[in-house]
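> run fold Solute carrier family 30 member 8
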Amino acid sequence: MMIKYCDLISYGCLSIPNIQEHDYYLSLAFIPLTIIASLVLVRDIVNLLTEGILQGLNFSEVTESLLGIDGVLGVRHLRIWALSMDCISLSVTLATDSSANIETILNQASALLKAKYDIFEYSLDTVPESRQSNIVSMGTR
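> ok
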């Protein structure tokens, strides 16, 4: 005849003394862990619902990187938001030199956004500008 694990507990062979006392202390130990995990989850949910930007991504850094591309004179209307915790979306208008190759600029900007910032979805637009015109950065007028 085979004795089951449940039978050993019910017979008292594998009993834990004062289980009620240990349960109380274990419950107290898990309360802070539960509260911390809940606060982190609520913060992430609010960030997603408001389409906020993910931590670690800086507007100034993205602007400087885009300005480093040959032929880009300015960055306008830069918008970055989170679609989910690991999906970032970006929209930008690049003011380009009127003599620059637009296709090359768009390819370099696409490669930069994918490789350096792991942008999931982006929209790039270009506006030809002459070097003498007043270029406005970061979408301000």
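Strands lie at 72-84, 87-97, 121-129.
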